Amino acid sequence: NEIRLFSPATVANVACGFDVLGFCLDSVGDEMVIRKVERKGIYITHVEGFDLPYKAEENVAGVSALAMYEAINVDFGFEIEIYKNIKPGSGIGSSAASAVGSVFGMNELIGRPFNKTQLTEFAIKGEALASKCEHADNLAPAMFGGFTLVKSISPLEILEIPSPENLYATIIHPQIEIKTSEARAILPKEVSLSNAITQWANFGSLIHALHTSDFGLIQRSLNDVIVEPYRSQLIPHYKEVKRAAIEAGALGAGISGSGPSIFSLCHGQETAERVKEAMRQVYSKTNIDFDIHVTKIN
Ligand code: HSE
């Protein structure tokens, strides 16, 4: 009647795949306990780590749980405990981890009536509460693992993209908060045709490179000419961190989701550790607190 689960952090956009591409960080995430209870309804009964609302309708995990609850006609309810490690506003899918965790857990407790795409659909409602728009590029990798591509939101179609052997990510999280809604508000509503061409060439190439384990092509494809020029201004020392990562051997680097976290992709763990050191050094010289992780992408 109870399940304890790990709900992973995720990196959305991955440079050229704004709002559609993402990958899962297997070793960073939240824990949640979901419990089937007699009283009907959805109840957030415990929150630890960061301050989050207890009212289900105001809580991301609660809203996605309510969306699923409405779809199942049952005479019992669920309690949700959230042990948050992923700081809200950090750019590694904090809201997505909450939104996915509650519905995944509930589904397990009632015999898995829904598939992962259907569960993601409920989770979109929770994510929308946090970012004021419906996007699933953090939800999909949190739900499926690895790299995912959100082909469309309505109807929801998610593609699982293979990860090459030995692909690692480093993530540095400077302790400043950027609200996704604000980082979206600064983006232009229209893009030039020439930038669009560059972006979709890079995006298509990156997907091809992931399928064929072509690390050189990953390196040449990790560029973002549309979003990064605007959002990078919100992140202190962004250019230095990116340069340091690439000089230390990263295939490329970019803003994780809406920031402020910065990710890099690396071929092999040794390189990833070297890149971690290089990124660390940039922020060590500032008075900004940060944490930094290396994780294999599965
Ligand atoms: N694709 C979304 C954005 C992800 O960049 O706004 C938010 O984490």
From TrEMBL:
**Annotated keywords:** Amino-acid biosynthesis, ATP-binding, Cytoplasm, Kinase, Nucleotide-binding, Threonine biosynthesis, Transferase
Q: Which GO terms describe its cellular component?
A: cytoplasm
Broad enzyme group: transferase
Pfam families referenced in this protein's UniProt entry, alphabetically: GHMP_kinases_C, GHMP_kinases_N
Quote the protein name from its UniProt record.
Homoserine kinase
Tell me where in this chain the GHMP kinase C-terminal domain is found: 206-284
GHMP kinase N-terminal domain segment(s) = 66-146
Q: What Enzyme Commission number(s) apply to this enzyme? A: 2.7.1.39
- The protein's organism comes out as Aestuariibaculum suncheonense
